[in-house]
Specification:
The complex is a heterodimer of chains A (413) and B (192). Chain A has three helices and 24 strands. Chain A has 413 residues and is mainly beta. In chain A, β16 (302-309) and β17 (315-322) form a beta hairpin. The longest helix of chain A is centred in the N-terminal third of the chain and has 16 residues, at 2-17. Chain B is mainly α. Chain B has two domains: 1-125, no CATH class; 127-192, Winged helix-like DNA-binding domain superfamily/Winged helix DNA-binding domain (Arc Repressor Mutant, subunit A). Chain B is 70% helix and 0% strand. Chain B contains nine helices and no strands. In chain B, α1 (28-51) crosses α3 (81-106) and α6 crosses α8 (166-181). The longest helix of chain B is centred in the middle third of the chain and has 26 residues, at 81-106. Chain B starts with 27 loop residues before the first helix and ends with a helix. The chains are: A mainly beta (413), B mainly alpha (192). Chains A and B meet through α1, α2 and α3 of A and α1, α2, α3, α5 and α6 of B.
C-alpha cells in the first residue's frame, strides 16, 4: 500500500501541476448580490479586480476568455392588488439601500398593496451595499406598529463579529414611520448576530448570536429588557459545535424558538439540525435546557433552512429545500410538540445550476409570522406573504421589498 | 511537473499570512478577494483533480469565490475562510459530477465527449494509468484521496473538511487505494 500511496501522491501532484498560472482566467470579483446596483460598484469592485490582476501570479493569457457565472435570480413582479384577506397585518418593514445609494433605510409598505407608506434613514457604519443583503435585522411587536431595527456596526480588527446597534421606531395608523430612537440596551459586543425578535408585547428583545470571543465559538441567546436594560444570557456549553439561529417568540413573551445550527456542517453555511425551545421563565442559563422539537433537520422531504414558531406555540412554520433537479423549495407546518408534519403549505421549484442553487439556498427564510399566526412573510423563490393558518393555507402573494431579483433576509410585520 | 510545495494548501484553519489581511477585516470584499488571490491556483488544481478539466474547475472555483463573497456575513467562523473555500470547491465539484451523472443517464454520448473535451481543454499530457484509475473512482474516494495525498491533509483535517468522521476518511481512502492498487501490477509490467 505505501507504494500506491507514494505513487498516487506523485501522480496527483504531477497532474495538478500541469495547471499553471498562465492558463487560468482571472477571478471575477462578484457583486454582493446578483442585481446589486451598478452605481455602487465601481470603486470597490475595480479596486478588487485590480488587486486580483496585479497579483501577478494569476494573470490570464491574452486569449483567456473570462466567463463570469451568470446570476439570474428569479425576477418577479410583485402582486399589488388591493384584495387583502382579513387578518393580514397591515404593514411590513424591510431595510434596503436608499435610492441615492447614500445610506440605509427602513421601508414601510402596505401589505395589501406593497406600496411604500414611508421610509426612515438608519444610521449605519456598514457599507451601504450590505443593506440589501445582510447586516441589518428587523423585528416587530404584535401590534404591527412597533419595530426594532438592528444594524451591525463597528468591528475590531482582531474580531470576526460586529457590534449590533438597535433602534426602535413606531409607525402611525397610516404606515408613516416616526423617528428612530437608539436603544441603550445592547447585546454582547463584537459578536456575530444571527437574528433578533421582539416579544409580542414589545418589552423584550431576543438576540441570538455567536460568541466569537471564546476560543471556540459559543452559541448565545440574550434577552434584553427594553424598559430596564437588564440582560439575561443563555449559553451553550463550550466546545459545542451548535449555535442558535434567528429566534421567534411563542406563548406571549415566555418561550423562544430558534433553529439549531450545526456550525461545522455544510460547506459554507451552518446547517439547521433542529428547532429548540427555550423557556425564559425557567431558571438557569443553559441554552440547551430547552427541548429539541424537531429531532432531525430533515422534514417534509427536505432540509430545514429556516423556521419560526407561531405565536400560540402550537406550530412551527419551516422552509425546506431539496438539492434536486430542479431545486425543490417547500413551506410546511409542523407540530411543535412532535415535529410531525401537519401540512405542506407550498412547493416551489427553481432551476438547478450551481449559482442558482447557492442563491436559492442562501435566500430561503420564514421571516416573520403575524401576531395572529395566520400569515407569514417568507422568502422562497420570491418574497411575499404566505397563508400559514388563515382561511386559505398555502396561498401566496408576492410583495415588493428590494430591487427586483434580490432577496430579503429580514422583514417583519 | 512537481507542484511547488508552497502552492499546496496544507492545513485548514487560520489565514496563512494574517498580516497580509490586516486592515481588510472591515472590508469583506477585499478580505475574500485576498484569500482567493492567494489560493486561486491551488483551489483550481484541487478542483481539476476532482472534475477532470480546467474550464470546469475554474468555474467551480469562481462559484466558490462568489459564494464566499455573498455569504461572508453569515459564515460561522470567518477566521476559517480557507476551510470554507476548500469545502465550497469540493461541494461544487461534487455538484458538477452529479450533474454529469444525471446527464449521462439521459444521454449516454455526453459522457464520451466530455472526457475528450476535458482533456483537450486543459491540454493535459497523456494521463498515467494511475490518474485514469483515480478519475474512475467514486467522487467521495477521489475527494478523500486528493485531500490526503495531494493536499497532504491529516485524516482529522480531511474529515473536518468533508464533514465526515475520521473513520469514514480512513475507510474511504482504504477502498480507493485498494482499487488503485489493483492496476499497479499491469502498470509495473508495462514499465518493465
Amino acid at each position: 500500500m505505501p507504494d500506491v500511496e507514494n505513487l498516487l501522491r506523485e501522480e496527483l501532484k504531477r497532474a495538478a501541476g500541469q495547471v499553471q498560472p498562465e492558463l487560468l482566467r482571472p477571478l471575477q470579483v462578484p457583486t454582493r448580490r446578483p442585481s446589486w446596483r451598478p452605481r455602487l460598484l465601481p470603486l470597490a469592485a475595480a479596486a478588487a479586480v485590480i488587486a486580483v490582476i496585479a497579483a501577478g501570479a494569476l494573470v490570464a493569457g491574452p486569449t483567456a476568455a473570462h466567463k463570469p457565472a451568470a446570476h439570474k435570480p428569479a425576477a418577479h413582479k410583485p402582486v399589488v392588488s388591493g384584495s387583502a384577506p382579513a387578518g393580514l397585518p397591515r404593514f411590513y418593514v424591510t431595510t434596503s439601500s436608499s435610492p441615492d445609494g447614500g445610506g440605509i433605510q427602513a421601508v414601510v409598505r402596505a401589505s395589501a398593496s406593497g406600496q411604500v407608506t414611508g421610509t426612515v434613514a438608519v444610521p449605519s457604519a456598514i457599507p451601504v451595499e450590505w443593506a440589501d443583503s445582510g447586516g441589518t435585522f428587523v423585528t416587530a411587536a404584535a401590534d404591527d406598529r412597533s419595530f426594532i431595527i438592528g444594524v451591525q456596526g463597528g468591528q475590531e480588527p482582531t474580531k470576526s463579529g460586529m457590534d449590533l446597534r438597535l433602534f426602535r421606531f413606531a409607525i402611525s395608523a397610516a404606515g408613516k414611520p416616526g423617528h428612530l430612537t437608539e436603544l441603550a440596551a445592547a447585546p454582547m459586543r463584537n459578536e456575530t448576530t444571527e437574528g433578533i425578535a421582539l416579544s409580542p408585547d414589545g418589552k423584550l428583545l431576543a438576540v441570538s448570536l455567536q460568541n466569537d470571543s471564546s476560543p471556540d465559538a459559543v452559541g448565545v441567546i440574550q434577552v434584553l429588557d427594553l424598559a430596564t436594560g437588564a440582560i439575561r444570557t443563555w449559553t451553550a456549553p463550550a466546545h459545542n459545535e451548535y449555535i442558535p439561529g434567528p429566534p421567534s417568540w411563542a406563548d406571549g413573551s415566555r418561550v423562544i424558538a430558534f433553529t439549531w445550527l450545526n456550525s461545522a456542517q455544510s460547506g459554507l453555511m451552518a446547517a439547521p439540525r433542529g428547532i429548540r425551545l427555550l423557556d425564559t421563565a425557567a431558571p438557569g442559563d443553559n441554552l440547551l435546557a430547552g427541548t429539541v422539537i424537531v429531532p432531525k433537520g430533515v422534514v417534509a422531504a427536505g432540509s430545514i433552512v429556516s423556521a419560526q414558531i407561531t405565536p400560540d406555540g402550537r406550530d412551527v412554520i419551516v422552509v425546506t429545500w431539496r438539492d434536486l433537479t430542479p431545486v425543490v423549495v417547500q413551506f410546511a407546518e409542523l407540530q411543535a410538540s412532535t415535529g410531525r408534519l401537519v401540512r405542506l403549505l407550498r412547493t416551489e421549484t427553481a432551476r438547478y445550476d450551481q449559482v442558482n442553487v447557492v442563491t436559492v439556498e442562501d435566500s430561503l427564510g420564514v421571516l416573520s409570522v403575524g401576531s395572529q399566526g395566520r400569515y407569514a412573510l417568507v422568502q422562497g423563490t420570491q418574497f411575499g406573504w404566505l397563508d400559514v393558518g388563515g382561511p386559505d393555507p398555502g396561498r401566496f402573494a408576492p410583495l415588493p421589498a428590494v430591487p427586483a431579483g434580490q432577496y430579503v433576509n429580514f422583514a417583519a410585520w | 511537473m512537481e507542484a511547488d510545495p508552497a502552492d499546496v494548501i496544507r492545513s485548514p484553519g487560520l489565514w496563512p499570512e494574517q498580516a497580509a489581511y490586516d486592515g481588510a477585516a472591515d472590508d469583506p470584499a477585499r478580505y475574500v478577494t485576498e484569500l482567493f488571490r492567494a489560493h486561486h491556483l491551488e483551489l483550481v488544481r484541487l478542483a481539476v483533480l476532482i472534475v477532470g478539466d480546467l474550464a470546469t474547475a475554474e468555474d467551480v472555483v469562481q462559484d466558490a469565490f462568489e459564494q464566499l463573497h455573498r455569504r461572508w456575513r453569515t459564515l460561522r467562523r470567518q477566521s476559517s475562510a480557507l476551510d470554507y473555500a476548500r469545502s465550497a470547491v469540493l461541494n461544487g465539484s461534487r455538484s458538477v459530477l452529479r450533474r454529469r451523472s444525471v446527464a449521462r443517464r439521459h444521454e449516454a454520448r455526453i459522457s464520451a465527449s466530455s472526457h475528450q473535451e476535458a482533456d483537450a481543454a486543459v491540454g493535459f499530457e497523456q494521463r498515467s494509468e494511475l490518474i485514469e484509475a483515480f478519475r474512475r473512482l467514486p467522487a467521495r474516494q477521489r475527494e478523500v484521496l486528493a485531500l490526503r495525498y495531494y493536499v497532504d491533509m491529516s485524516v482529522a483535517d480531511a474529515a473536518a473538511t468533508l464533514h465526515i468522521s475520521e473513520g469514514a476518511v480512513r475507510s474511504t481512502a482504504s477502498r480507493g487505494l485498494d482499487a488503485l492498487a489493483r492496476i499497479l501490477p499491469s502498470r509495473s509490467s508495462k514499465e518493465a
